Amino acid sequence: MPSTVPTNPRKLPQQDRSKVTVEAILIATARILIEEGYDKASTNRIAERAGISIGSLYQYFPNKESLIAALRDRHVSSMMETIESKLTDLDNAPIEVVLPELVRANIAAHAIEPVLHKVLHEQVPRLNETESENRMTKLLQNYLAKQCDRIQLKNLDCIVFVIERTIEALTHAAVIERPKLLQDRQIEQEISQMLLHYLEQKLAPLP
Predict the structure, then answer these.
(1) For the chain, what is the radius of gyration of the CA atoms?
(2) What is the pLDDT of residue 145?
(3) Would you list the DSSP string of 120-146?
(4) 64, 42 in Cβ contact below 8 A?
(5) 44-103: per-residue pLDDT in tens?
(6) For the HTH tetR-type domain, which residue ranges apply (predicted)?
(7) What residues contact residue 81 under an 8 Å CB cut-off, 6+ apart?
(8) pLDDT in tens, 109-156
């Protein structure tokens, strides 16, 4: 069930000084989450760590949940920028080429602040999905829609869900639990082969 707690920031920073304040708040939030855990990340503790008054924090964020949502959105946005940058020139490439690159890009994205990613994934209660978290779904939907001559679009939502969740679950587990599997790209190859095998029955052969 979606959270009923407001998770939007109270106001967005416009001036440079305000942007610096918000950045300090988000950095302090991340540090406390990593060092002390979610339960210790109170707004008072975050304000103290950021070197500002609690009143200044509340000018931008009405509660702890809105702070966590902003931090999650920034983290996911950074990950998606990494993924999108690696797939920029592959819009028209066949899925046999794109899928391994997508897996490789996701592994690179999960290497961005892996400890913070682990905390956000494992300790923080699930809040409403952010726009950044929908970017991967949209990226896959847009790409696969262009493959309409090779794939059955009536199952597109299900196919996108399976691909996205498989990559996310396995890359997250490898980066956090078994990083040695990343050294020789073994896990990357295994995930790619598994998904390509899954798609074989749904794809028309290349001309």
Answers:
(1) 20
(2) 83
(3) HHHTSPP-PPPTGGGHHHHHHHHHHHT
(4) yes
(5) 999 999 999 999 999 999 999 889 989 998 998 999 999 988 888 888 888 889 999 999
(6) 19-79
(7) none
(8) 988 888 898 888 888 876 666 666 688 888 888 888 887 777 766 778
State both tokens at 76.
């996911």
What distance in Å separates the CA atoms of residue 33 and residue 38, rounded to the nearest whole number?
5
DSSP state of 182: G
Q: Cα 80 to chain center, whole Å?
A: 6
> Minimal CA–CA distance to 82: which of 121, 113, 120?
113
* pLDDT > 90 in the chain, percent: 38
CATH (residue range 16-200) = 1.10.357.10
Residues with Cβ < 8 Å from 157, sequence gap 6 or more?
A: 141
Please tell me the distance from the alpha carbon of residue 178 to that of residue 159, in angstroms, as a whole number.
Answer: 27
**Domain ranges for the chain:** 16-200
pLDDT at residue 7 tops 80: no
